[in-house]
Structures are given as C-alpha cells and as structure tokens.
Write a structure and sequence with these properties.
569 residues; alpha/beta; 3 domains; 8-stranded mixed beta sheet; 19 helices; 17 strands; elongated
Length: 569
C-alpha cells in the first residue's frame, strides 16, 4: 500500500520482480493512474459542493506532487490534470488532450532538461501518446452489439444480459487501453528490461481496476489513522483482500509467457517507431493493411541486415567492473559462464544489471554449465542472479567452503533449482555443448592431503575447440600455484587476479605464450592491474586489453585470434 499510494517501494522485496515480470510494474510507479483515481474519488465526494470542487481538486493535485515528489510521470499527470481544471474554471470547455500533453512535456523539460533522458518520462509520455493515437479508432471499430452496452435493436439491454454486456464492454475497453498504452513503449521496455510479458494486457484488465480501488482506500486509511488507529484498521479490513487479489494477479501474470529480448539499439527503436506509425495510419484508414505490413517487414529486415554478425563459438569477457565474468558462447543459444562478477561493497546487482542483459543480447537462452572459480564476492555474487533466472545444466565449483555464506547460498540455490553440482579437480575434462567440439580441461585445484585454500583453490580451466587449446581462465590464482599448472600454449589468456602483482608470473606467460591477454578490472584501490604484470606481458609481445578501458571484449575462436571490444552504456 505505501508503494501504491506514495511510491515507496523499498520494502517490497521480491514483489518488485513479480510485478515487473507480470507487466504490472507501472502500478508501483506513481503515474496518471494514481493522480486520476485520486481526483475522481475526491471529485465525486465534492459533488454537492460545486463552488469548492475545482480549487480543492487543484490544491489536492499540488499537494500530491509535494507529498510523493516530482517524478517525471507524476509531473506529467499533474500538469495535465491542472490544465484540465483550469480549462473548466475558465469556461473554455474540455481541455484538448494533445495540447495538455504538449504543455506537460514543455514544462517538464524547461524545469529539468535532463528529464528527457529519464525512462519514466519517456514511458509516461509515450503511453499517453499511444492512448490518444490508437484508442479512438479501435473503440470506434469495436463498438457494436454486445460491446458498449447496446443491443442489436439499438436499445440498451436489460437484466442479466445487460450486466454481461456491460462487463464485456468494460473488459474489452480495459484491454484496449492497456494495449494502446504499451504499444509505443514496447521497444523501450524490451531493451531496458530484457523482455516483454506477452499477457500483460490481459493481466492489467484485472489489475488496473484493483489498483484503482486500492489507491483511494490507502489514502482513506491514512486519513482515518490521523483520527484513530482502530478506524484505519477498519478500512484495512477492506483493503487487505483487495491487495491480496492484486498480488495474486501479479503472481499469476509472472508465470505466464515472457518473451526474452536482447539489446535494442537506435536503429531498432527507429524501426519500432516506424512500425507504430504504420499501425496508426492503418487504424485511421490512411494505409491499407498490406501497405502497412510491407513497411513494417521492410523495417524489420533492415534491422536484421544492420545487426553485427558474430560467429560462434566465441568468448566474451564481460565488463563487470572490479570482478570476473566470461561467457563461452556456443551454437544453439547455449553457453558456459565462468564467474558472474559482483560488488562486495555495494548493493548493485551486477548479475541483474550486466550479466543477464548481456546473455539475452547475445542470444544465450540456456547455460550448459556455470563455473564458480572460487567464492569471492566479485566472482560469485552475480551467479546467484543468473542461476535463479535462466536454465543451467551444471554448476562447476571447487570443494565446498562451509564458512563462506556466498558459497553455501550458491549450492543451496543449485539444489533448489535442480542443478547438479560438480566438484572440479585437476586432470578432469568436461565436455560441453551438444556436438562435443568444446571441452574444458581442469588445471586446478589439485587433489592431495593438503589441498589449497583461498585464491589458490580457484578453478582454472583450459578451453579447447576441436582438441586445440584456445584460452586459459585462471580465476584469482597466484604465482605460488602457477608452476604446478599444466598450461598449454593458447591464443588468449584471462589474466589471474585482475592483474595483481602476485599473479601471472614469468613461467606461466612463457608456457601459455598467448597473443592476447584480457584483464577483467574496474576502478579500484588495489592498484590493479599492476605495471609489473602489464610490462611482463608486453615484453613477450602480448596484446593487453582491460575491460575498464575497452568494455566487453569479444574473441572469436575460429580463424585465428580475432577480437573486438564493445563499450557499454
């Protein structure tokens, strides 16, 4: 209820993810729905005080903005509401919707120009544009017998038939509003959140009316609580079941199909704008269906033609800041993820914000294996998010570390998700992918009476393609263990421990003799990568790339050592 009424979402926990997966996140972000519902409820309560109605509604609108804060969507809704109230007060009739929307956009950008780059600003205005563009022709086309409450004879049906007709009309109208609002925002939603809940319009047909009841009830409970707590509790006897029904709708919607999408660049957004324009022109009778379809297909073909083609298999060293995450991408939308990054001193979820979007953008729908080299937060933390979000065939890790909370949590999550856990030891060979062209040779840790611990227990791997060694992944291994590793010559070396002084010694560089070395590193106070390691690699003629300077680094595994970089947003 604090989220619905005041936009305070800090205590929602997993409900935020649930509402997002169901396409109901907009109900938790204050917008025109909340402003409109409050003004409608307040306006009806003032129906017997016509002289006080307009000034009270205007004051309530301003008070709501001051109470919840001037977020882009609230500023837009409040501006449009105040413009409509002013038009009524001045006797100019009903305010023109396009004019009030333009006024809201103008005032918002003049007061805070940076607002145009805010996702909430963009989604809020585009949703209103969608309703203004699509609802009139759709409503006109679908209004007929049984819709809108009119019978075949032109009169309004009565009795149970009339109630059913009105219910059907309300459901259809609710679905139209939801589709119209979401259509122009689709590319932004898919690109930002990694996918689209396809059943969102249907779920919102039920969810929006529930939210419309809960918003005024929340403020009523708050007002009652100012008088006496038992009176507020009485209101909440009604609120509770409605809130439970809304949460139930979100949980049901979150289980319905979700179309996973990857990165959408400027060309993709432009193509979607063109598609929406064609749909609008068709809806308003300016284009025939075949013409609109032809233009949309042409735009879609252009985006496909302009999309970079990266041959698989390849390796992507992801830019996760001061941490490690490397994706071995395989044919068929699968791959192997070696570590998932993490932020030990922050609540920033690098798995959710970086790794998962990267997997989706690269077309990886399933991971044959996930490798946790060792349980340091900057390597393991992001894996928790990944393991909970997409199918994983096998979790590869070193021996358990019972006193490490992250290691325990990862293994418990794997058991909960039905993912087999395999303890890796030196000398093992793991075959990944359906064709068996990719194998991972385990270099470390070694079995023995005194097994290594800490960084020296990191799982180190050699990636082989058709029997040829291509890359080495070292985790955070140090120079004390490196002489014992049977490292073959490879094309690519993922430098150990982010390029620290105690890793990637002379012997290892000579044994691996790579042509390319990648250091996964971010802004840090440790001095990583050290000049000593970088100079050692350079002295052997190795090209050194860091994710801090280059962003994500892609290395092709066929046709020689080809690499490219991609700086993220």
């Amino acid at each position: 209820m604090p989220a619905l009424t005041l936009g305070k979402r800090d205590d929602l926990g997993d409900l935020r993810e649930t509402f997002g997966a169901a396409g109901m996140a907009h109900l938790l972000a204050l917008s025109g729905l909340h402003v409109g519902v409050l003004l409608l409820a307040l306006g009806r309560s003032l129906s017997r005080l016509p002289s006080a109605r307009l000034p009270v509604l205007a004051a309530a609108t301003l008070g709501f903005v001051l109470l919840v804060g001037p977020s882009p969507s609230v500023v837009r809704a409040a501006t449009m509401a105040l413009a409509a109230l002013a038009a009524t007060a001045l006797g100019s009739g009903r305010a023109h919707a396009w004019a009030t929307l333009g006024l809201a956009a103008l005032l918002g950008t003049l007061s805070a120009p940076q607002m145009v780059f805010d996702l909430g600003f963009q989604l809020s205005h585009l949703a209103v544009v969608g309703m203004l563009v699509f609802l009139p022709p759709w409503t006109k086309a679908l209004t007929g017998p049984g819709l809108g409450g009119r019978s075949l004879g032109g009169g309004a049906p009565t009795g149970s038939r009339g109630r059913l007709a009105r219910l059907a009309g309300a459901l259809v109208n609710g679905g139209l509003v939801s589709v119209a609002a979401q259509l122009p925002t689709l590319s932004l939603v898919a690109g930002t959140f990694g996918g689209v809940p396809v059943a969102s319009p249907l779920v919102n047909v039920v969810a929006v009316p529930l939210a419309g009841l809960l918003v005024p009830l929340g403020f009523l409970a708050a007002a009652a609580g100012l008088i006496t707590t038992p009176l507020a509790a009485l209101v909440n006897h009604v609120t509770g079941p409605l809130a439970a029904a809304l949460i139930g709708a979100a949980e049901l919607g979150a289980r319905l199909p979700f179309v996973v999408w990857g990165e959408i660049g400027p060309v993709g957004h432009v193509a979607w704008v063109g598609a929406c324009a064609c749909l609008a022109a068709w809806a308003h009778g300016r284009l025939r269906a075949a013409q609109a379809l032809a233009v949309i297909l042409l735009g879609g073909s252009a985006t496909l033609a302009l999309t970079p083609r990266h041959g698989v298999p390849d390796v992507w060293f992801l830019d996760v800041g001061q941490g490690d995450a490397a994706l071995i991408r395989l044919p068929g939308g699968t791959g192997v993820l070696v570590d998932g990054g993490g932020t030990p001193f922050s609540d920033y979820d690098v798995g959710k914000r970086v790794v998962l979007p990267a997997l989706r953008a690269l077309g990886v729908r399933r991971l044959d294996a996930v490798v946790s080299t060792h349980p340091d937060a900057d390597h393991l933390e992001g894996l928790l998010t990944v393991l909970g979000a997409i199918p994983v065939g096998l979790l590869v890790a070193g021996p358990p570390v019972p006193d490490n909370a992250l290691d325990v949590a990862l293994r418990e999550l794997a058991a909960e998700r039905g993912v087999e856990v395999h303890e890796a030891w030196r000398g093992e060979r793991l075959v990944v992918g359906r064709a068996g062209h990719i194998v991972l040779d385990v270099l470390n840790p070694a079995r023995g009476p005194d097994p290594p611990a800490g960084n020296d227990a990191s799982v180190a791997l050699v990636l082989r393609l058709d029997g040829v060694a291509k890359a080495v992944f070292l985790g955070d291994l140090g120079v004390a263990v490196e002489p014992d590793l049977p490292v073959p010559p490879v094309d690519v070396l993922m430098v150990g421990h982010h390029g620290s002084r105690g890793s990637t010694g002379e012997g290892l560089v000579r044994a691996a003799s790579p042509s390319l070395a990648v250091i996964s590193v971010g802004k840090n106070s440790y001095g990583h990568p050290t000049a000593e390691v970088v100079d050692r690699l350079a002295a052997h003629g190795v090209t050194v790339l860091t994710t801090q300077e280059r962003g994500a680094v892609r290395v092709g595994l066929r046709g020689g050592t080809t690499w490219s970089t991609m700086v993220g947003p």
